[in-house]
Amino acid sequence: MIGARRLLALAVAIAPLATVAGLTHAQGVDFPKTHIKLVLGFAPGTGSDILGRVLADKISQALPPGVIAENRPGAGGRIATKQVIDAEPDGHTLVLGTNATLIVGPTLSATTPYRAEKDLAPIAMVGRTNMVLVVSSEKGAKTLDELVASLGTGLLTFASAGAGTMGHLSSEVLLLSAKAKAGHVAYRGSSQSLTDVMRGEVTFAVDTATAVLPFLQNGSLRPLAVTGTQRLKTLPDVKTFSEQGMPGLEIYAWWAVLAPAATPPSVVQKVGDEIEKAIASEDVLSRMKTMEVEPVRLRGEDLRAFMVKETTFWQDFVNKSGFRIN
Questions:
Q1: Of 52, 82, 31, 35, which Cα lies nearest the Cα of 256?
Q2: Are 126 and 96 in contact (CB under 8 A)?
Q3: CA-CA distance, 210 to 127, in Å (whole number)?
Q4: Chain centre distance of CA 31
Q5: Is the pLDDT reported for residue 8 higher than 70?
Q6: How many alpha carbons fall within 13 Å on the CB side of residue 104?
Q7: Partners of 208 in the β-ladder
Q8: DSSP single-letter state for residue 112
Q9: Phi, psi for residue 118 in degrees, rounded to 5
Q10: pLDDT, tens digit, for every residue of 53-100?
Q11: I want to staple 159 with a disulfide (CB 3.0 to 4.6 A). Which of 202, 225, 248, 280 is the partner?
Q12: pTM (2 d.p.)
């Protein structure tokens, strides 16, 4: 038989291990306990919606009972972001954020609703894509120079999928670079905004490659330029803005998954691992290729540091332009 003293010593030795095990359990070894909700800040048909659903479907296979994508459009994605910031920090509510919702919108707002690099736990970046300047194929300008010249009247308009989106802000950078003005018409998604550009009711739009490609493929929109440093593979004849003598639009739209700030590190690690596997898988890579989304592997604190640098870029834009959004 084991003596009382030995039992006491054994209990003392085991107690710390039990505590560690309990902490590990609390930090998400049994995660997920229920469906994970991936909140999307934009309407169906946008780049965020399409990419978010591809990602949710893939990681559902590794994180049963699965991931449900939920659209919460409004305020340039800030409503969705704030919803996740305020959610229970257990990893069951995540956001697919963009540089517009995480960095640009808050930086350019007259009142900053949150600071994503502090109020959220960065999990992993998913990918990035060029933005494309488009006009009506029937009624629009034939070249970038022609469009810029027409903007000199100050009477034209541009569309976006919402105030504070990357399409809206890329258009503002374009106008600043061209020293031109145009009225902003904000919609609740890309489908209607691009449809009105197609009809000639709005002069131009800048939107993600994912959103504009269907309109380009059916010939209803004409591309005049792409942002970024390289041309799109699916639009090899469309020059970048810098190739056409307009620097300052080396801009990309990018997406990342984040959780509430106090989410346990083990949960952040587990979800990040599955995202990294997903964007390396052949089926997701194939979908991203058709969407002109380039996979980007950036995790945790490296992603947070990247977000801080992005904030500096857009703060410089505010300082130069004085531009603010409500």
A1: 52
A2: yes
A3: 12
A4: 25
A5: no
A6: 25
A7: 131
A8: -
A9: -110, -35
A10: 999 999 999 999 999 999 998 887 889 999 999 999 999 999 999 998
A11: 202
A12: 0.79
Q: Return all residues near 90 (Cβ < 8 A) that are at least 6 apart.
A: 28, 31, 33, 263, 264, 267
Amino acid found at 23: L
3-class SS of residue 278: helix
- Report residue 270 as tokens: 């587990």
Contact of 101 with 117, CB cutoff 8 Å: no
What is the tens place of the pLDDT at every residue in 171-221? 999 998 999 999 999 998 889 999 999 999 999 999 998 889 999 999 999
Residue 130 sits at the vertex; the CA angle it makes with 212 and 326, to the nearest 5 degrees, is: 80
d(CA 30, CA 192) in angstroms, rounded, equals 43
> DSSP string covering 175-203, please?
HHHHT---EEEE-SSHHHHHHHHHHTSSS
Rounded mean pLDDT of 164-169? 88
Bridge pairing between strands 204-208 and 120-136: antiparallel
Q: By C-alpha distance, which of 122, 83, 61 is closest to 265?
A: 122
Amino acid occupying residue 158: F
